[in-house]
Prior knowledge:
With 335 residues, this protein is α/β, with parallel strands linked by helices. The protein has helices at residues 28-32, 37-46, 63-81, 88-103, 128-139, 153-166, 180-184, 193-211, 214-223, 254-261, 288-295, 316-334; strands at residues 8-14, 17-22, 49-53, 56-60, 116-117, 122-123, 142-146, 172-177, 226-230, 242-246, 269-274, 302-306. It has two domains: 8-103, Ribosomal Protein S8, Chain: A, domain 1; 115-334, P-loop containing nucleotide triphosphate hydrolases (Rossmann fold, 3-Layer(aba) Sandwich). It is globular and about 65 Å long. The N and C termini lie far apart (46 Å).
Amino acid sequence: MTALSPAILATDSEPGKRQLEFDDNLLLPQLYGERDRHLDRIERQLGVALATRGNRLTISGSASATQAAHLALSRLYERLKGGQEVDDAAVEAVIRLAEAELADGTLSLWREEASFRTRKRRITPRTAGQALYVKALRENELVFSLGPAGTGKTYLAVAAGVDLLLSGRVDRIVLSRPAVEAGERLGFLPGDLRDKVDPFLRPIFDALHDMLPADQLARRLGSGEIEVAPIAFMRGRTLSHAFIVLDEAQNTTPVQMKMFLTRLGEGSRMVVTGDLTQPDLPAGTRSGLVDALETLARIEGVQTITLSEKDVVRHRLVADIVRAYEARAAQRTKS
């Protein structure tokens, strides 16, 4: 496990108790949250009791729970020391990651390489599944990311691309999606080409706006350093020294998928994301994502990451909604 910051003094005062001592009292209101709401959340979710006195915080509970709370609070404090904010989402994330790291001592979820840097913020994984996804994005030339809505499949892929572009390790980012079901019947929509495809690519633009200032994003889009286009516009191209993302890949046909995968050129990396439970293909049409997963299963350098409702990081109800739909689908299968 990663060592604690020297700004945090930790002691095991007695069995079932741990104590943290912080060196900057000015950060403690942010650490504890308004009316101690962050501490309340940690107490509820980990089953511990937290008591504060001055710059000291005592954790009481079972050995495993106090260890998880100790790690979570330490990481939140380090986050504040590094100039990052601590909000409800950050608290939820560190609780999940602390539990995951303690359950599997091989996970290193707090290291610098477990995050991506963008102009606006540092993007860090919020679940163990996301941490494994980030690791896969760093280490593989082709990654398939599967999972339900809200698990960060697209967001983390875009963050990886922005990180590589800003560091000069790729020359451009190419982001693509199937538009209008899988047939891409753009001619039936009003407006020019931008008007036709913009609604289908909006989630990608939203992620980019979250990571780059508006003027920089506009400049990079204008220069071609960042390209966002429907999959039909990839045909016949070779994409070299690029970071390439295909989003909503469950809505491709096998022909489209093969075409897209073979655009991969020298010095490039590719990420393919999708949710196999939400295809918009016409009935009886085989998904190109399913076909690719079966075809490429044994190829070295290709990794598949599967995220679940445990990795949902949107509103807490999203995970419950995903779980409810999966339970109903399982029940229908049994009957």
